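Module 6 notes. Inverse folding takes a fixed backbone as the condition and produces residue identities as the prediction. Think of it as a translation problem where the source language is geometry and the target language is the twenty amino acids. Below is one complete input and output pair. Work through it position by position during the lab.
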């Protein structure tokens, strides 16, 4: 059986009871996190601009948008949800393949569920399985695919979105094969876009195109039978090296959500260790911005490849600058949404420390580690080694901290009573009778009229 067919049959054949309790809980964590990220990003200029561009040409406004009062057709709602959830770079990540799989999968599902009756349990099933598809295909082509410059969230996220929506649509196995093929032929997303609005567009388009692929397959629109594994399929075309066996190994036993992580800082995950270390040094040694005369970093090679941006003038660029990460850690002692704003990037004190920072790639430093050394005006040099950065696999965020992060972001668009209700619904999503209840609470207009 081909890998494409095996995935299709697994997504459709997996029963709700086949998903272990710990994986379901992880799905609840992921849903809480991604809805929070969608609410936090809902008023970003990128979302305003995509609505300005596409609202006039969208279809009937039947679908709700998370964190916005506007309504669009379901496909455009998936696009906007995806952009909102990814634009702050606060969404979850699977470090072994650097995919943000929740963003396209959940964004498509939430758009679908805003116009169709879907129980919370069915929603979770579809989310878990769509996430699995996206991450398993990513495993098969990582690192060659990523190193070539493809952005996993866009290129494999479209497959996860298609699988998830396809399950809810009740596709046949043949139709699911077509859906995966239709999704594979729309795979896109370039790492060159990091630091711009286009990065979040990848997640949005993956959600929209995956949803569309499932609809097309449901209508009988055909595709090649080997979209993932064929000699001119996804893996062969988009990766110089790949291992298709990683798509199906322990299928139905090892769920990819178990390897998911949640960000404590809204930026590229590989600079989290640097931020963690700089915050630690600032508090331990009472460092002021004016004290710093040099900052020397030793980091994993991927950090230099992925987050080497400078000079920078925009907050979105700061999310991919290890130098900015070090600077805000030392100057601000924190790294929240404000520290990655345009104002923060252009703050003279932060810019000064950023310009004093150098970074060296060290093969002995893993991607959740960093060595930070800071030279001070009084002649002292202080240093720290971050063994495992917070939020990563070896130091995960607790449920309580994850909910605090959710509440911080939700508070930008929702009143406290609604936040309380929404948090409870996310934690108890398996008991929700209709997911339109969840979407309604996350929609400001619905709250205002209730």
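Target side of the pair, the amino acids:
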């Amino acid at each position: 059986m081909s890998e494409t067919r095996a995935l299709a049959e697994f997504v459709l054949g997996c029963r709700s009871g086949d998903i272990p309790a710990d994986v379901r809980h992880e799905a609840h964590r992921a849903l809480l996190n991604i809805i929070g990220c969608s609410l936090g990003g809902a008023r970003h200029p990128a979302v305003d601009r995509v609505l300005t561009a596409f609202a006039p040409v969208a279809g009937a406004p039947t679908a709700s948008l998370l964190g916005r009062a506007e309504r669009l057709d379901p496909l455009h709602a998936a696009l906007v949800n995806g952009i909102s959830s990814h634009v702050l770079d606060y969404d979850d990540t699977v470090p072994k393949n650097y995919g943000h799989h929740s963003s396209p999968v959940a964004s498509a599902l939430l758009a679908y569920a805003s116009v169709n009756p879907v129980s919370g349990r069915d929603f979770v099933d579809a989310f878990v399985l769509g996430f699995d598809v996206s991450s398993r295909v990513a495993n098969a082509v990582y690192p060659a695919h990523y190193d070539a410059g493809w952005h996993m969230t866009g290129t494999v996220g479209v497959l996860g979105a298609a699988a998830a929506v396809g399950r809810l649509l009740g596709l046949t196995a043949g139709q699911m094969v077509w859906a995966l093929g239709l999704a594979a032929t729309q795979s896109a997303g370039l790492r060159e876009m990091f630091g711009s609005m286009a990065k979040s567009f990848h997640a949005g388009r993956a959600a929209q195109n995956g949803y569309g692929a499932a609809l097309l397959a449901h209508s009988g629109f055909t595709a090649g039978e080997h979209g993932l594994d064929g000699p001119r399929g996804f893996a062969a075309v988009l990766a110089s090296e790949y291992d298709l066996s990683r798509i199906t190994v322990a299928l139905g036993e090892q769920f990819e959500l178990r390897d998911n992580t949640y960000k404590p800082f809204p930026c590229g995950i590989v600079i989290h260790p640097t931020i963690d270390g700089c915050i630690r040094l600032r508090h331990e040694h009472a460092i002021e911005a004016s004290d710093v005369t040099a900052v020397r970093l030793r980091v994993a090679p991927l950090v230099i490849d992925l987050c080497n941006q400078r000079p920078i003038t925009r907050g979105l660029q700061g999310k991919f600058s290890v130098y900015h990460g070090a600077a805000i850690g030392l100057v601000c002692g924190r790294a929240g949404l404000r520290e990655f704003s345009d104002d923060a990037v252009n703050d003279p004190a932060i810019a000064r420390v950023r310009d004093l920072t150098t970074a060296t790639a060290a093969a002995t430093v893993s991607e959740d580690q960093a060595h930070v050394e800071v030279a001070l005006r009084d002649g002292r040099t202080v240093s720290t080694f971050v063994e495992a950065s917070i939020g990563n696999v070896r130091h995960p965020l607790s449920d309580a901290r994850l909910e605090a992060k959710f509440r911080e972001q939700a508070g930008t668009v929702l009143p406290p009573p609604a936040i309380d209700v929404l948090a409870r619904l996310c934690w108890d999503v398996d008991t929700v009778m209709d997911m339109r209840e969840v979407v309604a609470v996350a929609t400001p207009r619905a709250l205002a009229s209730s």
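Reference fact for the lab report: Residues 446-450 have pLDDT under 50 and may be disordered.
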